[in-house]
Amino acid sequence: MPPYAGHRRRGGDFRIPGRHFHPAHESLHRRIPNDQLLVYDATRGVQQIQQQGPHGDEVDTDSLVLSIGGTCRNPGTRGVRAAWGVYFGPESPYNASALLDAALSQMLARAEIEALRQALGTIEAKIISSDFQPRRCIIKTNSSYIQRVFPSLVRRLRVDGGRNVFGEKVVFYELLRDIEERFEDLGYGDGIEGGTDVMFWCVAQEENREADGLAVDALAQPRNGHEERR
To answer: What is the pTM of this model?
Structure first.
């Protein structure tokens, strides 16, 4: 497995894949109002982030911004059901949502992990190409769980064989480890100047309505309608 590649990106910021993204703390973004930060590229079907340029605000064409969300109905009961949602932008062909497979643990955390896993698969298989290799992939989420485990906790667990300080196996460890390794592969790319750095943008729930809304819509579907919605 290749190591993380730290490298200087366009604009002079030094980044390591997996770090959290805070636009209010970023010199290129902090003066741009929140409601103007994201711009939808209808040609690519994805959102990108605006930054301050020498001649005013401009779109960072090396960026990719998406949102992930999850929801869980009737937790702790026999009727529990969870769903996930991924949002790439208004009318994006990559937007998706579905009920969590009934064979999986019906938990909010598992739904949020599934949203992340599904988003990553779409990015790898359908978005990144020879024509579009974003330098930054910013994943917007209101999940305290995702915020806590990526990247530091997963890296620490990998050193400890997936066990916590009490020696107990951590739930979902293998899945979390696999996702983190895929992040590493994206960040490594074809060399020190290639690759896509993955960062998490942790927001309040009201700032992540689109992805959460997709998950809620999936949960509202009839129980026999497990197929993915796009």
So the answer is: 0.86
